[in-house]
Design a protein that fits this description.
The protein has 119 residues and is an alpha+beta fold. The protein has helices spanning 4-16, 20-27, 49-62, and strands at residues 28-35, 45-47, 63-71, 75-77, 80-91, 95-108, 111-118. Strands 1, 2, 3, 4, 5, 6 and 7 form a 7-stranded mixed β-sheet that branches. A hairpin with a 3-residue loop joins strand 5 (80-91) and strand 6 (95-108). It is globular and about 45 Å long.
């Protein structure tokens, strides 16, 4: 079982490659939860990997072109780690947008059980 620090380190390495699918498949619990702010578009709360992956598909469907993205090195405390992330993308029918966010992850038994985004 990986520690929170090990999960965060692997998460960061994969994020630098843009390998979000591998992050979900290898680091997330099947029962993970994903929470977006109330003002977000699309699915706000997802429970379980099927719903989380569907949320990701809906997000990708809204994007016309991704210009850039980043994920900063995680900060770890106890069973949690957080990363500052952001993107520059053109959305279908909405134009180009830049956004930064704080992503918070909770780890239990070596797997991510919660992701929550603040922006």
């Amino acid at each position: 079982i990986m520690t929170t620090k090990e999960v965060a380190t692997e998460f960061y390495a994969l994020a630098q490659q843009g390998n979000w699918e591998k992050i979900q498949n290898e680091l997330f619990s099947n029962e993970a939860k994903s929470i977006e702010p109330d003002h977000s578009q699309g699915i706000k709360n997802a429970h379980g990997m099927d719903q989380i992956k569907e949320k990701g598909k809906q997000w990708q469907a809204m994007i016309e072109k991704t210009h850039s993205g980043f994920c900063n090195e995680p900060q770890v405390a106890g069973n949690y780690f957080t990363c500052t992330m952001g993107f520059d993308a053109t959305f279908k029918g909405q134009g180009r947008m830049r956004q930064e966010e704080i992503a918070l992850y909770e780890v239990k038994d070596g797997k991510i059980v919660l992701e929550q985004f603040f922006y």
